Amino acid sequence: MRLGRVGAPSHDEPAVAVRHNAAPPGTQLVPALIADRAAKQPEATALVCGDQRLTYRELLHRADTLAARLREQGVRRGDRVGLLLPRGADMGIAALAVLRAGAAYVPLDPAHPAARLAYMITDSGTSLLLTTAETTGPAGTDVPELRVDVDVDTDTAPAQAPVSCAPGDLAYVLYTSGSTGVPKGVAVEHRSLLNLATNVRPVFPVTARDRVLQFVSFGFDVAVSDLFFPWVAGAELHIAQEDERLGEALQKRLRDSRITYVFLPPSAAMTLPAPRAPCPSCGPSRSAARRARPSWSSGSARRAAGSSTRTARARPRCTPPRPTCVRASRWSSATPSPAPAPTSWTGGCARSRSA
């Protein structure tokens, strides 16, 4: 069945699955939780990308302004809106705007072939595409587009109030790589997004003191936690630009932005330069193990509550890499900073020990 026909849970859906993710009556969903956070700390930094820095008040205002534009274009509760946007702040703002409009967002990578994009747009039932000057038109579909990079009046308050959603409404649709055939869509409801943001987040944990670096592709499932972990917690979300995602440029971004949490795939983590200073946890006598790469240590895995995600906790020791799967690592910056750069890793998620 095409995802465009997916709506409320089927009557055939196991009752235990519904109960597991059920939200109590009156529970605030993620869009409302972010609005509450903006009310509590309006001048706290919410989003940083390059030279752009938005407070929680500005983030919510921009999202609600775009949400009002979506409704003017005919977007209604339960619709799917495709995000065909370049990597940057607009992707995060647009995702929140779609949720505030009562719709579900579908992240689309402009680098994908036109045929793949067209299939995902059609299969998901996308009714509107959000684009910019550099991403308009490549999908070759007749789905209408709305440019997010045009000048609009952002000084006045949006005329329409945000749309309230139910826990069973769709929040977003992600697609698999399609390596075994055509890409397969996974539709996720608000109840699951709420579970991720409120019950799974504390396991990592991400708090208001954190500075989170968004690294992975927006079409990857980890990008969902990258966006909504920090905004629900009141943390800073930093979006890495394309030229900040490997090697010394990535290390500089981690250090200069004083990042305390980042999810990095091993292929990216292995590009980080080796630190020039001795490992503070192991002392000078153990620094030889850190000659060429960040040092690796195996960790014990456990299952996060309410999630199938397996996380690994790094042990406080340094050992050379083994010719097996990397499960956890430790890394330290060569240059001290006001708040230490990441020195420990959790299942690909780096965390500063002082955070």
Describe the structure.
Helices cover 26% and strands 19% of the residues. It contains nine helices and 15 strands. The protein has helices at 15-20, 30-40, 56-72, 89-100, 114-124, 190-200, 222-233, 247-256, 266-269, and strands spanning 45-49, 52-55, 80-84, 104-108, 126-131, 145-147, 170-175, 185-189, 211-214, 236-239, 261-263, 299-303, 310-314, 344-346, 349-351. A seven-stranded mixed beta sheet has the order 2-1-10-9-11-15-14. A four-stranded parallel beta sheet has the order 4-3-5-6, with helices on both faces. β3, α4 (89-100) and β4 form a beta-alpha-beta unit.
How would the global form be characterised?
globular
What's the number of extended β-strand segments?
Answer: 15
- What is the string of helix and strand elements? HHEEHEHEHEEEEHEHEHEHEEEE
In spatial order, strands of the major sheet run 2-1-10-9-11-15-14
Which structural class fits the helix and strand makeup? alpha/beta
